[in-house]
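ok so for the tutorial part 2 we go from a plain amino acid sequence to predicted structure tokens. step 1 is just haveing the sequence, like this:
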Amino acid sequence: MGPKQILGIVLIVLGAVLLYFGWQATDAPIEQARESLTGDYSDRTMQYLIGGAVAAAAGVGLMLFGSKR
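step 2 — the prediction. this is what the tokens look like for a chain of 69 residues:
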């Protein structure tokens, strides 16, 4: 297993953790009140969700298309 595959696994795990915390933040009462009033979540919650999705996608990309040394 090469360094790109290891980095891919780390990014997938990091992305999953960030998505978990972002998903948990959307269930918080203050976030639900904000979302119902303004139609969007707080910046912090969106950073968790978007960062987690990007990290997971980059990790999957590295696992699939990383060099096969």
